[in-house]
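pls design
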C-alpha cells in the first residue's frame, strides 16, 4: 500500500528546506546577505567568464627553452661531479641533450660513468611518484668519452613538472589581482588556460604573468629580539618579514636584507620521508653554483636559522643542523604529508621554470556576458513554462505534483552548485534546461505505467504501487546511461564542456530524488486524503 512514515515525510521536507536555504543566497542582494549570521549558508554560484565577462589567456610552456636550460644544468652537474671525484677531463661538451665527458686517463672512464649514474638517480625517499632529476642514459662514445643523455621520457616528465610548477606560479600571480574565482587549469600536456572573470584588460594580466616569483634564502638575525625590532629598533641591513596564513600575518622574523642564495639556483624540491624517523620532510637540490654557495654559508652558520622568503613573505625558517654540502638538503619540521608537499610546491614555484608563450587571448565584455545571462534565463523560463503546461494538461493533478517536484529539482541544482562552489557557465545553463526535460521524463514513465496498470483492471492504489515499482528500474537504467555519458564528458572535456557535465550530473542525481521519492510522497498523501476510485488523467 502507499505508505509514508512520519519520519520519511519529515526527512523529505527537511531536505527541501535545506535546498531552499542553500539556494536562497543566489537571489538575495549582497546587502541582505551581509546581515547573515556567520554560520548561515551564504555562498553563491560564481558566474563564469562567458556570463560575467573578463579575460582569457592560453599559455604554453616553451619546451625547447626548458630542455636547453636543463641540458645546461646537466652539464654543470657533470662538471661538478668530475671535479669532486678528481677525474681529469680534457673536455665536457654539450651537444643537444647529450653531455660528453672526455677523460684524460682511460682508466678513469668507469669511474666517470659511475659518477654520471649518480646524477641520473632521483632525490632519495621521494614518495609522490616524481623523480628529482631527468631520466638520463649513461653510455660511452669512443675509448675515453662517457656520455649522459636526457631521454624523451625524461624530457616529457620535466615538461609535466614544469607545467605543475607554472600552475602554482600563475595562480599566485593572478591572486594578486584580487579577482573572484579565477579559473587556472592545465590544458593538454604543456598548456595552461587562465580565465579571470571581471578583468577586462588582458595586457595587465599578461604583465602579471610575465613576472618571475622572487625566491630568496636569507639568514635570520638572532642578535636582536624580533619584538624589539617591531618597536622600531631594526638593526642596519635587516628587516622584519612575516609568515602568512590564509592571507593574514602570523609570525614575524628579523631577517638580513642580503640574500645568501636566490631561488634561481634551486633546480628541484620534492616531498619525501626522513630515513630513520619516517617523518615527512622536503628534499631540495641546487645547481653547481648554488650548491657551492649554500655549502659555504651553512658551514659558517651551523645552529642558526635561515628563512626561505617568497615575495617578501617567510614560508619557512628551519635551523641549520649541519653543513649542507653536495647541493642537496632536507627541510624538516612538524610537517604533515600535505604540508611537506605544499612547501615543496612553493619552493619549486619560486620562478617560472620555462617561459610561458601566449598562444591565444580573448576578452569577453560584460555586455556580452549579460546578454548570455538574459538569453539563458529566457530559455530556462520558456522551457519550464512549456513543460509545466504540458504536464498539467496531460496528467492533471499528477502533473501538478510533477511540476512541484520539478521546481524542487531546480532548487536542488542551485543549492548543490552553491554548496560545492561550482562555476556557472553558459553551457551550464544549457545543462539546467536539459535537466528540466529529463526530470519530468521520469514522471512520464511512472504515470504512463500507472495508466496501463489501471486499464488492465487493477485498482487505483494497486496501479499506483505497480507504476512506481515497475518504472523504477527503467528510470535507474536511463539515468545511469546519461550519467555515464556525463562522466565521460567530464573526464575527457575541459572548460565549458566540464561545466555542462557537472550541471547535468547534479541534475541526474536530483531527478531520482524528486521524480521518485518526492512525487511518490505527494501522491500518497493525496490518495490518503481523497480516496479516489478513478484515475485523474
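designed seq:
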Amino acid at each position: 500500500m502507499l505508505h509514508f512514515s512520519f519520519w520519511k515525510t519529515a526527512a523529505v521536507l527537511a531536505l527541501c528546506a535545506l535546498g531552499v536555504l542553500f539556494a536562497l543566497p543566489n537571489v538575495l542582494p549582497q546587502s541582505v546577505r551581509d546581515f547573515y549570521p556567520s554560520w548561515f549558508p551564504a555562498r553563491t554560484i560564481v558566474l563564469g567568464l562567458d556570463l560575467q565577462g573578463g579575460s582569457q589567456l592560453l599559455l604554453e610552456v616553451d619546451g625547447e627553452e626548458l630542455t636547453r636550460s636543463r641540458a645546461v644544468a646537466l652539464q654543470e652537474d657533470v662538471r661538478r661531479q668530475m671535479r669532486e671525484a678528481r677525474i681529469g677531463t680534457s673536455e665536457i661538451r654539450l651537444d643537444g641533450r647529450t653531455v660528453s665527458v672526455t677523460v684524460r686517463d682511460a682508466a678513469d672512464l668507469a669511474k666517470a660513468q659511475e659518477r654520471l649514474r649518480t646524477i641520473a638517480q632521483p632525490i632519495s625517499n621521494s614518495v609522490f611518484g616524481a623523480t628529482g632529476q631527468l631520466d638520463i642514459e649513461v653510455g660511452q662514445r669512443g675509448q675515453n668519452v662517457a656520455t649522459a643523455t636526457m631521454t624523451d621520457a625524461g624530457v616529457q616528465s620535466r615538461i609535466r613538472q614544469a607545467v605543475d610548477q607554472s600552475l602554482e606560479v600563475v595562480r599566485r600571480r593572478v591572486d594578486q589581482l584580487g579577482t573572484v574565482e579565477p579559473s587556472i587549469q592545465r590544458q593538454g600536456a604543456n598548456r595552461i588556460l587562465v580565465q579571470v572573470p571581471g578583468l577586462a584588460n588582458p595586457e595587465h594580466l599578461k604583465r602579471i604573468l610575465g613576472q618571475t616569483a622572487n625566491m630568496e634564502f636569507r639568514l635570520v638575525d638572532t642578535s636582536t629580539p624580533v619584538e624589539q625590532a617591531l618597536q622600531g629598533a631594526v638593526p642596519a641591513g635587516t628587516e622584519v618579514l612575516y609568515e602568512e596564513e590564509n592571507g593574514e600575518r602570523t609570525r614575524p622574523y628579523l631577517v638580513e636584507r642580503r640574500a645568501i642564495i636566490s631561488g634561481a639556483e634551486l633546480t628541484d624540491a620534492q616531498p619525501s620521508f626522513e630515513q630513520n624517523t619516517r617523518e615527512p620532510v622536503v628534499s631540495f637540490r641546487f645547481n653547481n653554483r648554488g650548491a657551492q654557495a649554500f655549502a659555504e654559508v651553512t658551514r659558517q652558520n651551523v645552529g642558526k636559522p635561515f628563512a626561505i622568503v617568497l615575495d617578501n613573505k617567510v614560508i619557512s625558517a628551519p635551523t641549520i643542523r649541519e653543513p649542507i654540502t653536495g647541493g642537496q638538503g632536507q627541510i624538516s619540521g612538524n610537517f604533515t604529508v600535505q604540508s611537506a608537499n605544499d612547501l615543496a610546491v612553493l619552493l619549486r614555484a619560486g620562478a617560472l621554470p620555462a617561459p610561458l608563450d601566449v598562444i591565444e587571448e580573448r576578452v569577453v565584455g560584460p555586455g556580452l556576458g549579460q546578454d548570455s545571462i538574459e538569453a539563458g534565463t529566457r530559455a530556462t523560463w520558456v522551457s519550464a513554462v512549456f513543460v509545466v503546461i504540458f504536464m498539467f494538461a496531460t496528467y492533471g493533478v499528477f502533473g501538478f505534483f510533477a511540476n512541484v517536484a520539478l521546481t524542487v529539482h531546480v532548487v536542488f541544482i542551485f543549492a548543490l552548485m552553491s554548496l560545492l562552489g561550482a562555476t556557472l557557465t553558459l553551457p551550464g545553463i544549457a545543462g539546467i534546461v536539459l535537466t528540466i526535460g529529463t526530470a519530468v521524463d521520469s514522471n512520464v514513465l511512472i504515470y504512463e505505467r500507472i495508466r496501463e496498470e489501471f486499464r488492465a483492471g487493477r485498482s487505483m492504489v494497486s496501479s499506483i504501487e505497480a507504476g512506481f515499482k515497475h518504472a523504477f528500474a527503467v528510470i535507474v537504467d536511463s539515468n545511469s546511461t546519461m550519467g555515464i555519458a556525463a562522466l565521460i564528458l567530464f573526464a575527457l572535456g575541459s572548460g565549458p564542456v566540464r561545466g555542462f557535465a557537472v550541471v547535468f550530473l547534479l541534475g541526474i542525481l536530483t531527478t531520482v530524488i524528486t521524480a521518485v521519492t518526492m512525487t511518490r510522497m505527494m501522491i500518497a498523501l493525496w490518495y490518503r486524503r481523497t480516496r479516489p476510485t478513478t484515475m485523474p488523467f
